[in-house]
Fold each of these.
Amino acid sequence: SAVISQKPSRDICQRGTSLTIQCQVDSQVTMMFWYRQQPGQSLTLIATANQGSEATYESGFVIDKFPISRPNLTFSTLTVSNMSPEDSSIYLCSVEGGRAVNEQFFGPGTRLTVL
Amino acid sequence: QKEVEQNSGPLSVPEGAIASLNCTYSDRGSQSFFWYRQYSGKSPELIMSIYSNGDKEDGRFTAQLNKASQYVSLLIRDSQPSDSATYLCAVRKAAGNKLTFGGGTRVLVKP
């Protein structure tokens, strides 16, 4: 499977600020996704990151709060904007395609704490 | 009704026994089914995928799918303490589509 890295691995942020999370894959992939996992909960899809076009957001998630970029087939960013303590979660990117045909693999995650 | 349902557990099994995990889903259009293992503080790791009715075996893991009953299960044979983790069931309609996750089943394997 592809090797996926995320930066930062964790961060502690102040209310009202923004954080950009990076996801880098070691090979070209077709699909990239961003998930959120709140404490003690399962995974919820935020959006599908589309290469060269606007991301596709799931119900309850909006571009102003979670802007996403995907400039090429190996890289994507998720920004968590105007953060509040409710945004404290683990944010995960996943990839599919390339070497990961028909299956999704997850990056190591970014643990975000908002004070 | 949740789209994907799992018993939250914990499922406690003695070392060497078989752990049996169940998952039901509501969308009959679902075509692909996955089991992920997630250790505390780590990201989900794909352990099994299954696309057709029946059983699929991989080492100590067996996935079972019954589309008519909208049911997928995971058996872990010869359970080891290292199998203690949360197991997430995920389903989707087609390749490249989003995964919908169940709430996960926590498994505890006791020596």
Amino acid sequence: NAGVMQNPRHLVRRRGQEARLRCSPMKGHSHVYWYRQLPEEGLKFMVYLQKENIIDESGMPKERFSAEFPKEGPSILRIQQVVRGDSAAYFCASSSDVVDEQYFGPGTRLTVT
Amino acid sequence: SQQGEEDPQALSIQEGENATMNCSYKTSINNLQWYRQNSGRGLVHLILIRSNEREKHSGRLRVTLDTSKKSSSLLITASRAADTASYFCATAPATALIFGKGTTLSVSS
């Protein structure tokens, strides 16, 4: 049973470009969460999705960031017009139920130059 | 605002010793989870303790939860060099996990 998959593992973008981060949850998991980790910091919640629905996006910046979890395919975190401050590690997690353990992927490390 | 706060921020011990990390939180929770993160890597789920549980064991790990004090502790017994990592507690007041800044554990051989 494969764990949570994220790709790419490393992503370098110039300021103003778009970044697309992908997350495939564990088999059987329908709950997906995105977190961001800045250097030397803990993880900060961004958004919680179920298939085709955004349930909680209270941690997501209002501009330039969007997330989706389509009926088919991985969840996507999209950052438009990236800025240097977006450089961070972005982790995706999945769970089988909202009150169960969240299992994390290896993360995507975004560097904005 | 920070929900979970780990204490101490850093801990250095010798192999074979026990390591205890504490976590305090502010609001009521459904459960509390402990994770380990090796430098530059993803998070590994260690243990989940629900709000109606007081203690839980998993191998060399022992977690306690005191909801009246809004605190939890993680005990790693007979530590090994491979236990060197950052340890985070994460609380689940609702859907999202709220992480503290972590305790950095160094185990020297």
Amino acid sequence: DVKVTQSSRYLVKRTGEKVFLECVQDMDHENMFWYRQDPGLGLRLIYFSYDVKMKEKGDIPEGYSVSREKKERFSLILESASTNQTSMYLCASSSGTDRFGYTFGSGTRLTVV
Amino acid sequence: KNEVEQSPQNLTAQEGEFITINCSYSVGISALHWLQQHPGGGIVSLFMLSSGKKKHGRLIATINIQEKHSSLHITASHPRDSAVYICAAGGSQGNLIFGKGTKLSVKP
């Protein structure tokens, strides 16, 4: 069974902390994505990556960075967490050949206090 | 105006009813996705459509490319179908542009 695994289901961090959200996929997918989901706003794209060491900004990249050192792993970094980054974070991956078949992780609910 | 619009936002049905959720989009797409999200957050991909119609069990998805419109139908609805259903347009860069979702509640 193919999987996208996010390292934490729930996370509570303090304002100003550096936060790492990890995502690992076992499908050898080229494309990986980070989204955040907020009530009334739906899902919004933060960053995505088409290949190792490549990254592209999405719609709301401010306050975030990403790292993709290995094909299977895509990390989202909150450089200095703020309360407005309290949200549900979802990772997804897709294949370059089946480019629009997506698999989502189960999400990380991050609370910044 | 949002690039992907869904209706209705909320839907309550009785078990056994036929359900339709609509999605209109204003962007060019390579594919249209229907996703399901249960309480707790995980999202499951139901369909990926570029034309015509697809069926999986009691779920049917259709798309009209000329009218930029897609529908998700659920036949013989069941309480376990209660979830948020999300329409998403597959953009040219491989990312998805999401609708706001339709919250479906099926009562026994």
